[in-house]
């Protein structure tokens, strides 16, 4: 006798247990339907989600991350002693002291009075405000 999976592989339809065979009572048939898992469709069998009738899914593995310096600690935010600005990390505070604290902005928009501490901010400003896309700082502006 061919099993359901052999019949499916050969292209024949698998037998369906809708009515009890003559040799089983209704109670036996009901118990059989509960205990026998339904055959998956052919598409489901070949998908990467099919794990088999008795398989269970595991929860995805979780990874613990170490908190970054200055974040999630009892110290709270790190404050600049010169101007009072607060930062989450020491790295951000050091960058603030090196680039911004007590200094004038280095980068100026050639079309308006906008000044920034970072070159990319002027480039974004030129793109969004003055609609000059792809412009790079220190390039001449062509008034066509």
Automatic annotation (TrEMBL):
Matches recorded under PROSITE patterns: ZINC_FINGER_C2H2_2
Domain C2H2-type: 78-105
InterPro entries documented for this protein: Znf_C2H2_sf, Znf_C2H2_type
Highest classification ranks of the organism: Eukaryota, Metazoa, Ecdysozoa, Arthropoda, Hexapoda
Zinc listed as a keyword: yes
Superkingdom per UniProt: Eukaryota
GO molecular function (one): zinc ion binding
Official protein name in the record: Longitudinals lacking protein, isoforms A/B/D/L
Key words of the record: Metal-binding, Zinc, Zinc-finger
SMART domains named in the record: ZnF_C2H2 (SM00355)
């Amino acid at each position: 006798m061919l099993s359901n999976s052999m019949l499916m592989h050969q292209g024949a339809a698998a037998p369906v247990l809708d009515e009890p065979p003559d040799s089983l009572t209704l109670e036996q048939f009901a118990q059989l339907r509960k205990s026998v898992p339904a055959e998956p469709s052919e598409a489901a069998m070949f998908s990467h989600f099919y794990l088999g009738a008795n398989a269970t899914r595991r929860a995805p593995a979780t990874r613990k991350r170490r908190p970054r310096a200055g974040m999630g600690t009892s110290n709270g935010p790190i404050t600049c002693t010169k101007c009072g600005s607060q930062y989450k990390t020491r790295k951000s505070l050091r960058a603030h002291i090196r680039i911004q604290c007590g200094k004038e902005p280095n980068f100026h928009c050639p079309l308006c009075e906008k000044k920034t501490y970072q070159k990319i901010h002027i480039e974004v400003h030129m793109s969004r405000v003055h609609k000059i896309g792809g412009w790079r700082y220190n390039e001449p502006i062509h008034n066509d």
